[in-house]
Amino acid sequence: MLSLSRNALIISRRLASAAPKTTTGIEHAETTKKTGEKHQMDQKKYKVEDYHKTNVWSYYKKEEDMESLRCKQPSNKKPDTQPKVTKKPDTESKDAKK
User: Where in this protein does the record put region Disordered (predicted)?
Assistant: First the structure.
């Protein structure tokens, strides 16, 4: 009897709809795309001027410009060197002794 009810439960689950009970991201993406196509923004009202001056390579150009400002990366070909610390003469203690 137990196996009969278990089999009935499995069959009823298979017959149930496989569609999700909630919406997925696909419906939202399609709706947003349709809304965006209907409501085009006037580009002259866009406040960021640089937006219209960018192209496919803009990001890489900025990376290239900043490369000289970055710290050198360690290499497996050249061993790291320990930082050298130089001690400055303590002028305050000399003034206090006089």
Answer: 17-43, 63-98
